[in-house]
Design a protein that fits this description.
This protein is of the alpha/beta class. About 25% of the residues lie in helices and about 10% in strands.
Length: about 160
């Protein structure tokens, strides 16, 4: 297994690529599943089945709450605090998935990119493909050690 930046699948990561690297120290897996209002909470499903090591990115909470519009890009300090609490640093390789295949994962991918995180990918096919291939699952909520996330917003992606 090659573990160089050249081997990093950007912007899509295959399920096979991730499966080979589940235990890598610099890989952080993020479940970005989201539900329409009134359709239940995605975090409940996350606790019932998730890719091993995955943490839950709450798209409703990690947002700008100074506006009435939902899911607006959070302030850099809000993003840094929330992502750091998920055990993610700016040096980690972040793989984002959702339980619809590719629905809300792309939005969270863009949020990471807007905050200057370059080593971020969406898992091709998301959780449905992972499960169809019979890959391992965990239950419960991960409790990673908090980290310090140094945000460097990409000014070309957001104002």
């Amino acid at each position: 297994m090659t573990d160089t930046l050249d081997a990093f699948p950007y912007p899509l990561a295959s399920t096979a690529w991730l499966a080979e690297r589940l235990s890598a120290d610099d890989i952080r897996i993020v479940d970005a599943s989201w539900r329409m209002p009134g359709a239940g909470r995605a975090i409940d499903d996350h606790g019932q089945r998730r890719i091993p090591g995955a943490v839950f990115f709450d798209l409703d909470e990690i947002a700008d709450h100074t506006t009435d519009l939902p899911h607006m890009l959070p302030a850099p300090d809000v993003f840094a605090a929330a992502v750091g609490a998920l055990g993610i640093t700016a040096d980690d390789r972040v793989i984002i998935y959702d339980d619809a295949g590719i629905f809300s994962a792309a939005r969270v991918w863009w949020t990471f990119r807007a905050m200057g995180h370059e080593r971020v990918s969406v898992l091709d096919g998301g959780l449905p493909k992972w499960m169809k291939e019979g890959r391992p699952l965990d239950t419960g909520l991960a409790a990673p050690a908090p980290k310090t996330y140094a945000v460097q917003p990409a000014r070309t992606l957001a104002r």
